[in-house]
Specification:
Order of helices and strands: EEEEEHE
Largest sheet: 3 strands, antiparallel
Number of domains: 1
Shape: elongated
Strand order of the largest sheet: 2-1-6
Structural class: alpha+beta
Distance between the termini: 5 Å
């Protein structure tokens, strides 16, 4: 897949995706997720926000959400 983020003047082609940090706001039950996209030649750090939960979450919930959220940045599947 190819991704494009407005803060980078480059298309990120077939990166590996790694969740680095999850910042949990327990008052609003939302999380921001720091993600590292790595290619053979570069690394790109992005923060995704908008993850919400009702009572709790686990790592799999975050990883699945990141996969879905990254679809918003696909420019070439």
């Amino acid at each position: 897949m190819t991704y494009k983020f407005e803060q980078f003047n480059v298309e990120i082609i077939n990166p590996t995706v790694e969740v680095i940090n999850v910042i949990d706001n327990i008052n609003t039950k939302t999380c921001n997720v720091d993600v590292l996209l790595t290619t053979d030649t570069a690394q790109f750090g992005v923060t995704l926000d908008g993850f919400t939960y009702l009572e709790t979450w686990d790592d799999a919930d975050i990883i699945n959400w990141v996969g879905i959220e990254l679809q918003n940045y696909v420019v070439n599947g």
